[in-house]
Amino acid sequence: MQLVVARIGRAHGVKGEVTVEVRTDEPELRLAPGAVLATDPAAAGPLTIETGRVHSGRLLLRFAGVADRTAAEALRNTLLIAEVDPEELPEEEDEYYDHQLMDLDVVTADGVEVGRITEISHLPSQDLFIVERPDGSEVMIPFVSEIVAEIDLEEQRAVITPPPGLIDDRAEIVSSRDESSQNESSQDEPSQDGPSRGESGDAS
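Now predict its structure.
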C-alpha cells in the first residue's frame, strides 16, 4: 500500500536541502536517510533521502542527486510516497496509521451518525479528522482522547463525545432563544435562527 508521508516545500540554502511538510506520525522511520520514496508527480522520483535534520522546528531533507538550490526548488510541492505493508501496525497501542482511519464511520456515544472520515490533517499541535457529513458539509474533529472515545477497527467506526458546539450548536441556540422569549413580557415576532458554526464545518 502506498501512503503519502510528506510534501516537499521550498528550497533551504544553496546545497540542495528542502523543507518538508510531514504527513506521517513516524518521520524517523519513513523519512530516514536511505529511504527510497516514490513521488507524485512520478517523473520527479524515485528519490533517495541522503540526509535529514531539524532546523527551527522544521524537517530539512537532502536527496541523492539534488546538489543545488535550483534542483531543490524544482521539487517544490512534490508528494513523497512510501510503500507500507497494509497489515503493519504502529508500535503504540493507541496509535493508528492514516489508512486505518480513513473511511471510518463517525458516531457519537449515543449512536447519532456524524459522518465519515475522508482526510487526516496533521497539525503541529494535534491531528484532525476531516469528516464528511451526510449533507455533504465537513466538520473537523480533533483526534484527542477527550473527544475520540474509541476507535473500533473491526466495526469500522470512531466513537466521539463532542463538546457543545463542536459538531452543531443550532439546538443550543434555539433552546437559549426559546428561554429568552419566555422571560420577555411580549414579543412581536419570533426570532430567526442565525448561521451555526456546525454548518460551516469549523470546530469551536
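Confidence is low (pLDDT under 50) at residues 169-204.
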